[in-house]
Design brief:
single chain, 61 residues, 1 helix, rod-shaped
């Protein structure tokens, strides 16, 4: 009887740790995706702005 309780307890701990790891993994994956998206959008915006400034400076001279 005591062994079954111990095994149940260990399984609960392992399950809890697995869930915690899973939650952390999902959180890190979402954060990574968000950062990647933000980086791409920022790069696109900056390149568009720089292109406009270059075209503007060329037409001014």
């Amino acid at each position: 009887m005591g062994i079954l309780v111990l095994v149940n307890y260990l399984v609960d701990i392992a399950h809890g740790k697995f869930l915690k790891l899973l939650v952390h993994f999902i959180a890190f994956a979402l954060a990574g995706l968000w950062l990647c998206l933000w980086y791409k959008l920022t790069c696109m915006y900056l390149s568009r702005c720089l292109r406009k400034k270059l075209i503007y400076s060329r037409t001014q001279t």
